[in-house]
Amino acid sequence: MVKITLARGEDKRIRAGHQWIFSNEIRDSSGEKMPGEAAEIYDAGGDFVGIGYYNPRSLIAVRLMARTRTDIDAPDFYLERINRSLSLRRQLYPSLDTFRVVHGEGDFLPGLVVDKYGDYLSVQFLTCGMERRKGLIIGILRTIFSPRGIVVRNDSPVRGLEGLEEVVEVACGDPPDLLEIEEHSLRFRVDLLHGQKTGHFLDQKENHLLLKGMAKGKDILDCFCYSGSWGIHAASFGAASVTCIDASERAIALARENAELNGFSGIMKCETGDAFERLRSLEGEGRSFDVVVLDPPAFVKSRKVVKEAMKGYFTINRRAMGLLRSGGYLLTCSCSYHMEREMFRDLLANAARQARREVRLVEVRTQAPDHPILLSMPETEYLKCFVIQTV
What we know:
CATH superfamily of the largest domain: Vaccinia Virus protein VP39
Number of domains: 3
CATH class of the largest domain: Alpha Beta
Distance between the termini: 61 Å
Strand order of the largest sheet: 16-15-14-17-18-20-19
Number of helices: 9
Number of strands: 20
CATH topology of the largest domain: Rossmann fold
Shape: globular
CATH architecture of the largest domain: 3-Layer(aba) Sandwich
Helix content: 25-40%
Strand content: 25-35%
């Protein structure tokens, strides 16, 4: 086991509940410094702080797993943690069989994501420490869930920061090309092997219900639509028309399938195209909408590219505001942690000024509760969903 001693004063944030120790906060280390190795952490005075796993290749050098001496390579450790996470979800969603089971740091299992899609699991091992324990964790998941299949979606670029390759593999079973799930009595086909993230955007399921009070009889534009979740919810709430746009032909094909599955092919038009350009061309065509949804991928991958990414967010929101009819709504999202809430709010205010629209802020939402947020760790709150209305 590696022994990590922190520099003076660097234990304060960790003792306050944070789980990350950065490489520049470490005074010295000893032991076999293999990536993913278990590590005991001590403060500058020699007092024990906690147990985590160490990666000398990463800026986040240690991710804390426990604040008492425990064996983080023991099966019982993961059995208890995952069962505790599952218990919370059973309280939140007693009748659902599709939800996020483990949300990394939010469930005190940093670097691990587990999504349950009925009888199948989609799992991400995002860090070297979790990758090293992959076999152990897969075994625990099989014990708890007895799934028909487990897909490992290790194709996130985040793994590159840990020195890991991107790969998708089937850990057990024989997952179908597409499986069907239910969300708010609507049916969706999910591509576990090739879809975005783990197959479906489970973090937005509560926010989809925002459309219930604003979609009836209205014209809806859904940009970056992926498999059509926003648009299909709008149609289910009585929208007159829904236009869905995504750059991925695979995503648009899936959105069309989901529209047909729910009986909305007649009112949903799904287009393959660049949302930035399509927003501009729609304005040139004189088109307008009652509701515009912007749910783009994370433009801000790191703090270094915040300024550049803000230009993208600004552009799509300004153009979207220009397409809104009087009294219309913009539901605009950012899933980038580095795009902080107040920063996003200021950006939207600037976009409204440049679009020459008077707007009011109706509501601000975040991710679904099966993606828990720790008050001691702001990084666990990544999703912002602003509801804006033109006046």
